[in-house]
Amino acid sequence: MDQRRQKPNDLRFIKAEHVIRSSFIHLIAEKGFEDLSVTDIVTHAEIGRGTFYLHYKDKHDLLHTFEKELTADMQEIIRSIQTTGIAAVGEITIRLFTYFEDHILTMQALFGEKGDFGFRNRIKEMVWYDEFSRIFAQGIREKGSSVPVEYLASYIESSIHSLFLTWLKKEKRESPEEITGIILELMLTAMRPAGSGSP
């Protein structure tokens, strides 16, 4: 994720930004978002409260920054794919899970049981449903499903989000390519028209 609040050429600001963000993620995983405070963050980061407030108003402002960055990064991945149909779904899924793997500690903290429920729901709605699931639904429709896109997208959103959370919890996770294969097989099998053969 980009640190979009950096001040150019200010190494002290950049260093403080890094320790604030890394401490925040560590403390969510350790204490949970609801129970952590600005005092916890500055103590763990070994900075003064004044330094923290140069960067963020409070912990919610900090979480919102992660939310904006994650949403923008995921949307950029999804919208950068030029192909369509199931081929696009496969490519997007691999790239998304590669991104998640590259930021795995952040993902596990923010989307884990100790993260913020509202954050998870907003990402689920803005990205999984509005962006990814509709592309996936269109791809499945092209494979012969007669289910309306809106229902497909809603089903896919819930299923993909649950699979994503399960994958995050695993100690030995599948590679982006492996989890993509699992997702495609599950979705295409579930949406296969009754009485049909292989998708």
TrEMBL record:
It comes from the Archaea. GO terms for molecular function: DNA binding. InterPro entries: Homeodomain-like_sf, HTH-type_Tx_Regulator, HTH_TetR, TetR_C_Firmicutes. Residues 37-56 bind DNA. PANTHER family: ACREF/ENVCD OPERON REPRESSOR-RELATED, TETR-FAMILY TRANSCRIPTIONAL REGULATOR. Keywords: DNA-binding. Signal peptide: none annotated. The keyword Protease does not apply. Residues 14-74 form the HTH tetR-type domain. The keyword Membrane does not apply. This is HTH tetR-type domain-containing protein.
